């Protein structure tokens, strides 16, 4: 059974940092592109970042560029999203999704991902 499990969410003050993890079981995540999405209350889901299969491509939404960093640890079968300089507008439930042998083109709209995690909540508030 394949599972993606997100963790690392929580409550943080503006300007703070969090690191989200997306740990896979049942698949070798190195063969997958992994994307992070988020959905704020009352808003549509939006793509945040994508790390391609083979790690040759990283993509970030304009709203997080320069503040968020996506990375992978194949030994832990985990993809991370390091989030710095957090803003109240980053408040959302964050999801990871995986698609095999994919290079992130159109990651936010054009891909039907094979696997999704259950989400982890991030709240940025003073």
In short:
The protein is an all-beta fold and 126 residues long.
Sketch the topology as an H/E string, one letter per element: EEEEEEEEEEE
Main sheet overview: 7 strands, mixed
Categorize the overall geometry. globular
Helix percent band = under 10%
Rg, rounded, reads 13 Å
Count of distinct strands: 11
Class derived from helix and strand content: mainly beta
Number of H- or I-type helical stretches: 0
- Report strand %: over 45%
Mean pLDDT: 96
Model regions low in confidence, pLDDT < 50 over at least 5 residues = none
Distance between the first and last residues' Cα: 40 Å
Please provide a written account of the structure:
The protein is 0% helix and 48% strand. It is mostly beta strands and 126 residues long. The termini are far apart. The strands form two sheets. Strands 2, 4, 5, 6, 9, 10 and 11 form a seven-stranded mixed beta sheet that branches. Strands 1-3-8-7 form a four-stranded antiparallel beta sheet, with no helix packed on it. It contains no helices and eleven strands. The model has no long low-confidence stretch (mean pLDDT 96). A hairpin with a 6-residue loop joins β4 and β5 (46-51).
Secondary structure: elements and pairs:
Layout (H helix, E strand, L loop, with lengths): L2 E5 L2 E3 L5 E8 L6 E8 L6 E6 L6 E3 L7 E6 L4 E6 L8 E9 L14 E2 L3 E5 L2
Parallel strand pairs: 2-11
Antiparallel strand pairs: 1-3, 3-8, 4-5, 4-9, 5-6, 7-8, 9-10, 9-11
């Amino acid at each position: 059974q394949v599972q993606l499990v997100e963790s690392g969410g929580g409550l943080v003050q503006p300007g703070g940092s969090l690191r989200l993890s997306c740990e896979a079981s049942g698949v070798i995540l190195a063969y997958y592109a992994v994307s992070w999405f988020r959905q704020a209350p009352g808003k549509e889901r939006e793509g945040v970042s994508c790390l391609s299969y083979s790690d040759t491509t990283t993509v970030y939404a304009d709203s997080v560029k320069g503040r968020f960093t996506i990375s992978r640890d194949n030994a832990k079968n985990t993809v991370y999203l390091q989030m710095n300089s957090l803003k109240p507008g980053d408040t959302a439930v964050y999801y990871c999704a995986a698609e095999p042998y994919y290079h992130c083109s159109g990651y936010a709209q054009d891909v039907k991902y094979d696997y999704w995690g259950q989400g982890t909540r991030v709240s940025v508030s003073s």
